[in-house]
Design a protein that fits this description.
By secondary structure, the chain is mainly beta. It is built from one helix and 29 strands. The strands form seven sheets. Strands 18-22-21-20-19 form a five-stranded mixed beta sheet, with no helix packed on it. It is globular and about 45 Å long.
């Protein structure tokens, strides 16, 4: 009996140690900015962007973050890097101080962020851009308010307006390869293309609600997840053509989602909500974030996870997990 009791005690200690190692822990960084985007290029190099031009960079896997001032004074809404040298910032001006200026613009670097060059979108008509995303061949799309859509020209510099069969705000998009892509947005809208954005088709959505989708993520070329308002989670098995609802266990708006493999994934949202699944989203478990701030963006490098949000919130996840970086489709493929 004593041996059995000792074994049980040791097992419980190991279980507690594993649970502790899997926690999201707040990292102390000297900023109260509303952080909107976190993006890791590799296991060592990562970027965080947010309000008032806040731009942070790490070269040691997130142990330390260095501020990069003077790039812009506007909100950095999104950061995308194809490799250590080539990257884009999606910037957004304060809507109350626009004047005659456009609400959104891009900045581009070819030297790892040492120098940034501003890039405007042709004939934007002041529509706010919410997301840019790229195919492996370098072709990019920009989406935003009232169904606005821009495509990157062959010069990799100029963005040309394209047409989209929607007037809703589009929030996120991914390319599965050079031609197939999916975008999501308001009004329960999910659209897919098979010709690099020349034409778009509406996906079949099995569910009673029409959520405002915030983000999506594909693992491989067929299986993906979309999240949004009222805790909505939808899954596809056929490259975005049809979607079915999953039960998330929360009614808070979900703002981002990421999967490490075909089974394990994370979703984050308002009021500090963090959800975790190891069953491909069939069961989601709430994780204590120790925060009530709005969580905006999540990303994983090879072993650690990062979440950023309102009030300078940076959460770090440390566990012996290696994300499969060889999958053909991530949120922002190279």
């Amino acid at each position: 009996m004593r041996i059995t009791a000792k074994l049980i005690f040791v097992f419980l200690l190991l279980l507690l140690a594993q649970t502790a190692s899997a926690e999201w822990r707040k990292q102390s960084v000297n900023t109260l900015a509303w952080l909107r985007s976190v993006h890791f290029v590799d296991a060592k190099t990562g970027w965080i962007g947010g309000s008032k031009g806040t731009l942070l960079k790490t070269v040691d896997g997130g142990d330390t973050w260095i501020k990069r001032p003077g790039i812009t004074s506007d909100t950095i809404r999104q950061i995308v890097f194809a490799d250590k040298n080539h990257g884009w910032l999606l910037c957004e001006r304060d809507i109350y101080n626009l004047g005659q200026a456009e609400s959104s613009y891009l900045m581009r670097t070819a030297d790892g962020g040492k120098i940034w060059h501003r890039v405007d979108l042709e004939n934007n008509q002041r529509q706010r851009i919410t997301r840019i995303f790229f195919a492996k061949n370098g072709f990019g799309l920009a989406i935003g308010e009232t169904g606005v859509l821009f495509g990157l020209k062959d010069d990799n510099q100029t963005w040309k307006k394209l047409s989209l069969p929607s007037t809703y705000l589009m929030s996120d998009g991914v390319f599965l390869d050079e031609f197939r892509g999916t975008i999501v947005g308001g009004g329960g809208t999910i659209l897919f293309t098979e010709d690099a954005g020349i034409t778009w088709n509406r996906a079949l959505i099995n569910g009673k609600s029409s959520p405002r989708f915030s983000a999506l993520y594909f693992n491989g070329g067929r299986v993906g997840w979309a999240v949004g308002s009222s805790g909505s989670v939808f899954q596809t098995f056929n490259s975005g053509r049809a979607w079915r609802a999953q039960k998330s266990g929360t009614t808070e708006r979900l703002n981002d989602v990421v999967f490490l493999d075909s089974a394990e994934g994370w979703a984050i949202g308002d009021e500090g909500v963090i959800l975790h699944t190891t069953t491909a989203g069939n069961i989601w478990q709430k994780i204590d974030s120790r925060s009530t701030h709005k969580l905006e963006s999540i990303d994983f490098n090879r072993s650690n996870g990062w979440i950023v949000g309102f009030g300078g919130t940076i959460l770090k996840y440390e566990k012996g997990i290696t994300a499969n970086l060889d999958k053909p489709t991530i949120r922002n493929p190279q």
